[in-house]
Amino acid sequence: MLKKWSAAVLSGLLVVGALSACGGEKADDAGSGTKDDGKITMGFAQVGAESGWRTANTKSIQEAATAAGIELKFSDAQQKQENQIKAIRSYIAQKVDIIAFSPVVESGWDTVLKEAKDAKIPVILTDRAVDSKDTSLYKTFIGSDFVLEGKKAGEWLVKEYQGKTDTVNIVELQGTTGSAPANDRKSGFADVIKADPKFKVIASQTGDFTRAKGKEVMEAFLKANPKIDVLYAHNDDMGLGAIEAIEAAGKKPGVDIKIITVDAVKDGMTALAAGKINYIVECSPLLGPQLMDLAKKVIKGETIPQRVLTEESAFTPEQAKTELPNRKY
Ligand code: AHR
Asked: Would you say the CB of residue 235 lies under 6 angstroms from ligand 1?
């Protein structure tokens, strides 16, 4: 862990920092620049282990920390905000050099982020955003554009049903209620399909990003709605759970009910290549290396962008067949 600087050295640095600070970097709580024992300690508060995506994300962060020589304190919040807040408070008490976390929901972070700022511990958001108005509470946010992901899903649907006039009944499996990916994937999709009144979302409910809940909710959708044309699931895991429910109901996933999901993890891509899913919008979990790089820059007091966007693609069944052998997660 970094040794705290003497007041004199620190105040000198603050002047230099104040002169050079710009963009997302703040002079008063930027990193101290060098360290005595050569080690940066990062406290990382993970959402949980709810999906294949999350497992890959955790692996990426742990491996990247080791490769970067960063000591990682890791906690799993089991999809509960109060657990994440507790973990962040414990990292503050342990005086880690930097905190990173993937906020389970968007709201309710201002108090604990303020506590980190007061303790002069910089924070990096990964994967999911917070709705805090005060953006000085964190250094940067690295992750996907979830609205764009929802739009890509909607655009595929519009193209798929181009020239057709019959009503298209859509059911939606939302991610964790209040989470940025659930909010944004829903709104991005809705924004695109609203241009054509033949698209009707007849049911929309949370499946909490898990396979089990995806299956359970899809079973209920199938019982309540005799005609479902399309399933839009906010992640692969819920889509894969729903496929089990669709098959158990005697229907053919990908044929009787068209399926669009988000993530593109190996299991999802396998179902896509087999024609059980029709389209997957990619969301990359491999944020570890960039996160460690940004953390080092923050600690050194370097300027970093306030938003770092992840580059992503989307796949049809044919593209999944080509991509599968190279898929790392
Ligand atoms: O925040 C990213 C989302 O969280 C992934 O799409 C989902 O699979 C995960 O649980």
From this structure: yes
Nearest to 79 by CA among 181, 205, 188, 218: 181
Structure tokens belonging to residue 269: 């891509």
Distance, CA 32 to ligand 1 centroid (Å)?
A: 33
CA of 221 to the centre of ligand 1 (A): 22
Judged by DSSP in three states, 65 sits in: helix
Pocket of ligand 1 contains residue 54 by CB under 6 Å: yes
CA distances from 250 to 25, 216, 222, 243, 256 (A): 56, 16, 11, 11, 10
Residue 202, φ and ψ in degrees, nearest 5: -90, -15
Model pTM score: 0.89
Rounded Cα distance, 157 and 154, in Å: 5
Give every CB contact of residue 140 below 8 A, 6+ residues apart in sequence. Answer: 24, 124, 125, 294, 298, 304, 305, 306, 307, 308
CA quadruple 329, 230, 209, 111: dihedral positive or negative? positive
Measure the CA–CA gap between 324 and 4, rounded to whole angstroms. 48
To test ligand 1's pocket by mutation, which of 283, 310, 312 has the most ligand atoms within 8 angstroms of CB?
A: 283
Cβ-in-10-Å burial (0-12, 13-18, 19+) of 171 comes to buried
The one-digit pLDDT tens for each residue of the chain (329 residues) are: 544 333 333 333 332 232 223 233 333 344 444 455 679 999 999 999 999 999 999 999 999 999 999 999 999 999 999 999 999 999 999 999 999 999 999 999 999 999 999 999 999 999 999 999 999 999 999 999 999 999 999 999 999 999 999 999 999 999 999 999 999 999 999 999 999 999 999 999 999 999 999 999 999 999 999 999 999 999 999 999 999 999 999 999 999 999 999 999 999 999 999 999 999 999 999 999 999 999 999 999 999 999 999 999 999 999 999 999 999 89
Nearest residue to 5 via CA among 28, 24, 33: 33
How many whole angstroms from its chain centre is CA 128? 5
Residue type, 76: D
